[in-house]
Design brief:
Largest sheet: 9 strands, mixed
CATH architecture of the largest domain: 2-Layer Sandwich
Bound molecules: uracil
Structural class: alpha+beta
Number of domains: 2
Helix content: 10-25%
Strand content: 25-35%
CATH superfamily of the largest domain: Pseudouridine synthase
Order of helices and strands: EHHEEEEEEHEEHEHEEEEHEEE
Number of helices: 6
Number of strands: 17
Shape: elongated
Radius of gyration: 22 Å
């Protein structure tokens, strides 16, 4: 989803009657307000969520939505699915129907936990692009015992020939014989399952409890959502 960033003077030239000179005058006269403050600099960048007032009149804008949802197992991170319930089916219709609503980092069908949902493409890109290295925290339960060679192998990165990439270092902490916590800074396709697959150790459950500063609250039950605070 694109964030439509542009200069405020260009935006006003497109959306107001009159010419460039008229827009310059409005800015110079202090008749333009951006997000509650007077704006006289035509080069300031705005996007589809900016609240711009001209002579006290609010211009059309979109409302930014930022939600966290506790995904139950069996629900898919997709916009539509003929067979399974989707995370958007767990939202009320008036939110689920907002244009451009999307997931900032998917989970597989049987994974559970924190899913962030937004209509702000710039925000979701900053959370999900590998180069921004936002930490994603997972708790994993495995079928077979965890041995001492897992930690070094996850830290070193693994080569995935299909994508021709080596995974970024993963922080690995063994909590018990079958349970570990992992911190990833990227989200390759089925990454965690494929990494444990190298040890022929199937993942029994996979739960994401944190993305960057966003922590899944204990009182947000599976299937529930809430706006980000
Ligand atoms: N890695 C996986 O294998 N599955 C997920 O849902 C998330 C990360």
């Amino acid at each position: 989803m694109q964030s439509r960033r542009q200069r405020i003077d260009r935006y006003l030239e497109k959306h107001l009657p009159g010419n460039k000179h008229h827009v310059k005058l409005l800015l110079a006269q202090g008749q333009v307000e951006l997000d509650g403050a007077c704006c006289q600099d035509g080069q300031i960048l705005v996007n589809q969520f900016s609240r711009i007032k001209v002579a006290g009149q609010l211009m059309p804008h979109e409302t930014a939505i930022y939600l966290m949802l506790n995904k139950p197992a069996g629900v898919v991170c997709a916009t539509v699915d003929d067979e399974h319930q989707t995370v958007f089916d767990l939202l009320p219709d008036d939110i689920a129907s907002v244009s451009g609503l999307h997931i900032a980092g998917r989970l597989d069908r049987f994974s559970t936990g924190l899913v962030l949902i937004t209509n702000d493409g710039a925000w979701s890109r900053a959370l999900t692009e590998p180069q921004t290295k936002v930490a994603k925290h997972y708790r994993v339960t495995l079928e077979h015992p965890i041995t001492d060679d897992y930690g070094p192998a996850f830290a070193a990165g693994m080569y995935f020939p299909y994508e021709d990439i080596t995974t970024q270092p993963v922080t690995f902490r063994k909590l018990s014989e079958h349970v570990a916590e992992l911190v990833l800074t990227e989200g390759r396709y089925h990454q965690i399952k494929r990494m444990f697959g190298r040890f022929r150790n199937p993942v029994k459950s996979l739960h994401r409890y944190r993305i960057g500063d966003h922590l899944l609250p204990d009182d947000l039950a599976a299937g529930e959502y809430r706006p980000l605070g």
